Amino acid sequence: MRNVVIIGSGCAGNTAAIYAARANLKPLVVGGHEPGGQLSITSLVENFPGFPEGINGPDLVENMKKQAEHFGAEYIHGSVTEVDFTKRPFRLNIDGEWHETRTVIIASGASARWLNLPSEQKLIGHGVSSCATCDGFFYRGKKIMVIGGGDSAMEEANFLTRFGEEVTLVHRRDAFRASKIMVDRTVANPKITMVTNTVVDEVHDVSQKTVTGVTLRNLKTGETYRRDVDGFFVAIGHIPNTRPFVGKIELDEDGYIVSHGGARTSLTGVFHAGDVQDRTYRQAITASGAGCMAAIEVERFLEAEGH
Ligand SMILES: Cc1cc2nc3c(=O)[nH]c(=O)nc-3n(C[C@H](O)[C@H](O)[C@H](O)COP(=O)(O)OP(=O)(O)OC[C@H]3O[C@@H](n4cnc5c(N)ncnc54)[C@H](O)[C@@H]3O)c2cc1C
């Protein structure tokens, strides 16, 4: 019987593990399909406090893990595939094996949607990004391309004009899902060029390990052409990793956990942390802060229950 199982080993899960371990709760952390979370696929992180020169994403999450292990957190490989939250102790199925726990912290994150082009996947963290707040700063005076047609694509394109010499917004249709006000603001921005009815066929240049350009294809004419860019931002949404929790706790219409205040979910004893609930900030530091909150809530909850 565990005091707490933490689902996910990104910034939120690792920080929750540090706090829970230091509270002597001996947490079990389930690593999931992406040990280390989203930061494990990026390169330099310059906005996590405490690292004046920046730190590589994989090093940052590995350091957090070591710190949690140092205080007694246990990590296991595998994913939670099914949960039984009907009674306490809760039961979690981790790759076919059931584990019992008094409390759960869900820190399973939200995965960025990608175009899933092989060249795009190989260049993530090397010019391909899904986060303008995180990576915009690297493209000062450079050519930037943003993919998408929703509010977040418009927001990212506008934000990126603070850095880029020019920003091209590419959308596969000519109508936008974004709100009219966001579209109007984007159209009015002199640094943004909109390219519609167009898809990306390839991101160059995998052999140089950096983005140098893209091949675009006009869906109306079939014409393909190359365009030079330095930064390639995919802004077509995120998918919260909540499949095992559907019908077990309250989720919103897009599948994000609905917070019931602090780190509480709709179910007593089950807490949330990080991007799996936060669709607004999506940063390493906010996820870490949320992990801290969840662990403190777990500790107080167990204390109140006499454990
Ligand atoms: C390319 C890129 C660059 C970024 N750069 C920055 C940056 O410079 N600065 C910054 O502040 N933020 C950056 N971010 C955002 C930051 O990475 C996220 O906000 C942060 O990682 C969220 O942490 P999290 O722990 O909530 O979720 P995640 O990091 O998404 O971690 C989720 C964890 O849950 C696990 N998991 C999922 N489902 C299950 C399951 N069923 N069972 C068990 N485990 C499961 C996964 O394996 C993973 O370990 C970047 C994101 C990306 C994609």
Task: Describe what is shown at a glance.
The chain is of the alpha/beta class. It is built from seven helices and 19 strands.
Based on CA atoms alone, the radius of gyration comes out at 21 Å
Helix run count: 7
- Care to count the β-strands? 19
Order of helices and strands: EHEEEHEEEEEHEHEHEHEEEEEEEH
Shape: elongated
What percent of residues adopt helix (DSSP H or I)?
10-25%
Largest sheet features: 7 strands, mixed
How far apart lie the N and C ends?
12 Å
Q: What structural category do the secondary elements indicate?
A: alpha/beta
Instruction: Give every kind of bound small molecule, once each.
Output: flavin-adenine dinucleotide
Binned strand content? 25-35%
> Quick check: average pLDDT?
96
Which parts are unreliable, with pLDDT below 50 for 5 consecutive residues or more? none
Which key terms come to mind for this protein?
27% strand, 19 strands, binds flavin-adenine dinucleotide, 307 residues, elongated, five-stranded parallel β-sheet, seven-stranded mixed β-sheet, alpha/beta
How would you characterize this protein structure?
The chain is α/β, with parallel strands linked by helices. Helix content is 24%, strand content 27%. It contains seven helices and 19 strands. The chain has helices at 11-22, 57-70, 118-122, 132-135, 151-160, 180-188, 284-304; strands spanning 2-7, 28-30, 44-45, 55-56, 74-76, 80-84, 90-94, 97-106, 110-112, 128-129, 143-147, 166-170, 192-195, 198-204, 213-218, 224-228, 231-234, 238-240, 270-272. The strands form five sheets. Strands 1, 2, 5, 6, 7, 8 and 19 form a seven-stranded mixed beta sheet that branches. A five-stranded parallel beta sheet has the order 10-17-11-12-13. Helix 5 (151-160) links the parallel strand 11 and strand 12 (166-170). Helix 1 (11-22) runs parallel beside helix 2 (57-70), helix 1 runs parallel beside helix 7 and helix 5 (151-160) runs parallel beside helix 6. The protein is elongated and about 65 Å long. It starts with a strand and ends with a helix. The model has no long low-confidence stretch (mean pLDDT 96). It binds flavin-adenine dinucleotide. Flavin-adenine dinucleotide binds at residues 7-13, 30-35, 37-39, 41-42, 45, 47-48, 79-80, 107-109, 112, 124-125, 129-131, 134, 241, 244, 274-276, 282-285, 287. Flavin-adenine dinucleotide is lined by residues 7-13, 30-35, 37-39, 41-42, 45, 47-48, 79-80, 107-109, 112, 124-125, 129-131, 134, 241, 244, 274-276, 282-285, 287.
